[in-house]
Structures are given as C-alpha cells and as structure tokens.
Specification:
With about 375 residues, this protein is α/β, with parallel strands linked by helices. The protein has 14 helices and 15 strands. The strands form four sheets. Strands 3-11-10-8-7-6-5-4 form an eight-stranded parallel sheet. A three-stranded antiparallel sheet has the order 9-13-12, with no helix packed on it. α6 packs parallel to α7. The chain is globular, with a radius of gyration of 19 Å. The structure holds flavin mononucleotide. The site of flavin mononucleotide has 30 residues, from β5, β11 and α9.
Length: about 375
C-alpha cells in the first residue's frame, strides 16, 4: 500500500519493512482485536492483537466454542488478511494459555510475538518461530540482559525489544515506589537498553509509554530509538474494540483521574494504571465488591503445582477481578460485571475518537 512520504524512517523486523516505525501496542482484554490490528497493518505500522481471553472473544464471534490455539490462529489470520504486518501480544502472566497462544500465533504466520508482563525467558524454545519475530518487553537494560543470555543458550537472539517506561497503560514493569523516579524516565532508560541491544546482536529498540504526537516519535528516533509502540492513542479509535462507555471515559478523563492502582490492586502482582472512575475500581475501593471470578486467566500455582489460585478470587477486598472487569469494558457481558478501564498516563490529552487512518496520517506527519 502506498502512503504519503513521511519523514519517519522505516522499521525492519526480521527482514520485514514497516513503512512507518509505529507498533500499535497490544491492548487486553479484547481492545486490540483484528479490526484495530488489521487497520494499523494496512496503514504501514505493526498491528498487534492481544491474546488475553481470546478464546472467549473469538468463540463468541464465531458462535461456537474454540480453544486458545484455534482462536489465536483465526484472529491472527484475519488481522493479516488485508495486507501489511500484524502480530500479537502474549502476556507471560497468563501462564496457563501462554504456550497455546505462542503456537497458534506462529502457525498462523504472525509477523511478531511481543511478550511482557513477566520475562519470556523460554519463548524461543516453545515452537520453531520461522518468520515470526520474537520481541520481549522490558523496563530495564538488566531485564534485557537476562533475556538475551537465556535466549543465547537456546540459539536465538531477540528480533527487537520493546522498552516500556513508567507512563504506559496496563501493567507496569516497575515497583510502585520506582514509577516516578527520574532515573526511570523512558529517555533516561533508552541509552543503556540501546547499548545492551548492540552488545547482543544490534537488534531494533522500540520505545513505549507516553508517546503521543508525531514530534514525540521524531524525538525518540533522534535519541536512538528504532521505533515506537503506542497504545493509548489507538484505544480511542473507531476500530478499537473498547466499548463506547470506555472510549467516552477516556475523552472525559482529567490528569487527576489517572492513577496506579495499589489497594485494591491487580491480581497479577504488578502495578496497574487505571481510570479512577472505572466502575469496578470504584466499587472495590468502597469495599462493595464480592469476589466473583469465573474466568481464571490470571492463575497462580497451588501447592500441587496446578494453576488454580487467583488473588482476585481469594481476596476481593484487596484485588479486583481483572479478567471480568476488562472483558466487560470490551463489551463482554457488561450486564454481569462492572467494567475496569486501563489507560496510559497521557489519556487525558485524548480529545476525540479518530479512525485509524486519520491517526496514522497525524502520527507519520502526513496529515493534510
Ligand atoms: C487499554 C490498554 C491495554 C493494555 N493492555 C496490554 C496488554 O494486554 N499487554 C501488554 O503487554 N501491554 C498492554 N498495554 C500496554 C501497551 O501495549 C503499551 O506498551 C503502552 O500503553 C504504551 O504507552 P501509551 O499507552 O502511553 O502509548 C495496554 C495499554 C493500554 C492503554
């Protein structure tokens, strides 16, 4: 597909050339599905699905029950069906479904697997990646070093890395007390991660968290980044599968409405950025929520090593039910469960819901 000339350089991932160095960040649960990822792919960026709860979402779309492997295959194929490049975000924290998600993505020919919310140390060993780029998400040079050393033993080096700073949406790779440290600002973290990437094979570094405008992208490219990953801007697009109330809550948000949940917190055990007015978060804050887990994606192992425990289920006073809440915010059974909204820290700057094409024109600097 031909696009107006952009001053932004292309980004090459495992030999595939993205005409714009923009990766649309995976947004679970159910926000970045094939309508969004496919639209970004067609515009020359990397469209990224989220694997979270994808079996339920695709089963509902197809009107028959499919497992995680089949759901991932189906969704990846659809996202790539109209041209361009599309991949999938697979969170390590969703341990029970991790291997099936990886296999489904590779078998469907996903252009990339982007894996974070934990260190994906075994990713290259799960399934021969063939043409699929394997891209870990890290929040420090140290985490990247650990991954590179583990992957070297498996005969693989990352095809790129996403460096996600503390302004991102979703789960954050920092301790609560480290989120606001000046030493953790994305531009401060970048040089050491770039050096680490050079040391281990000189693969591209993609920065994420708080990037909002075309000029932000240019600034990070000038500082040595090879590409950017952006999510909050894509959350409020026409093609995103967030439901209407979620998009409206983003438009209404002020800076003070955006906070990192501490108590109640995410059952994943990582800091999680929320909109204060999310109905589920408000109920949990007021102690009005009864634990009501009936999904079980975020499971911890019990004493016998089975994935059977969830903090959201065991302790509803201190943890919210993230699977139900996020599914609800993507329009899945909203009558059964209150929605939970996650956003990046710049969500208060979003003023309208755009079609992906208009947003991509703006971001690559080719808008009329
Ligand atoms: C609504 C939303 C959902 C997200 N879900 C995920 C996810 O499921 N897995 C993940 O690794 N990152 C997730 N993220 C993080 C993004 O992929 C991205 O790296 C980050 O938000 C970039 O910062 P920005 O939102 O300021 O552009 C999510 C972000 C948002 C806003």
């Amino acid at each position: 597909m031909l696009h107006a000339q952009s001053v932004l350089p292309p980004l090459v991932l495992k030999g595939k050339k993205l005409t714009v160095p923009i990766v649309q960040g995976g947004m679970g649960v159910g926000v970045s599905l094939h309508p969004l990822a496919g639209a970004v792919a067609r515009e020359g960026g990397l469209g990224v699905l989220s694997s979270a709860a994808i079996d339920r979402l695709v089963s509902r779309r197809l009107g028959r029950k499919v497992d995680t492997y089949e759901a991932v295959r189906d969704e990846v194929a659809l996202a790539r069906s109209q041209g361009g490049f599309a991949g999938i975000n697979i969170m390590v924290a969703l341990q029970r479904d991790f291997v099936d998600s990886v296999k489904g993505a590779i078998d469907a020919g996903a252009d990339a697997i982007i894996a974070g919310a934990g260190l994906p140390t075994s990713l290259p060993a799960i399934h021969n990646p063939r043409d699929t780029a394997l891209i870990p998400i890290v929040s420090s040079a140290r985490a990247l070093e650990i991954i590179c050393k583990k992957w070297e033993k498996l005969g693989y080096r990352p095809d790129a890395v996403v460096l996600e700073g503390p302004l991102a949406g979703g789960h954050l790779g920092f301790k609560f007390q480290e989120i606001d440290l000046p030493s953790n600002a994305l531009e401060v973290l970048l040089p050491a991660v770039k050096d680490m990437a050079r040391k281990h094979g000189d693969f591209p570094v993609i920065v994420a968290g708080g990037i909002f405008t075309h000029d932000d992208i240019l600034n990070f490219i000038r500082q040595g980044a090879d590409g950017v990953q952006m999510a909050t801007r894509f959350l409020a697009t026409e093609e995103s599968s967030a439901d209407r109330a979620y998009k409206q809550a983003v438009l209404n948000a002020t800076k003070e409405d955006i906070l990192v949940a501490r108590d109640p917190a995410s059952p994943c055990g990582l800091p999680f950025r929320v909109l204060r007015q999310s109905p589920m978060f408000r109920s949990a804050l007021q102690g009005k929520r009864k634990p009501k887990c009936n999904k079980g994606y975020v499971l911890l192992k019990d004493a016998e090593g089975r994935f059977s425990r969830c903090l959201g289920k065991e302790d509803g006073d201190h943890y919210f039910c993230i699977c139900n809440g996020l599914l609800s915010s993507a329009g899945y059974d909203p009558e059964d469960e209150e929605p939970l909204y996650t956003v990046g820290s710049n969500a208060y700057r979003v003023t309208s819901v755009l079609p992906v094409k208009a947003l991509m024109d703006e971001l690559r600097g080719t808008a009329a």
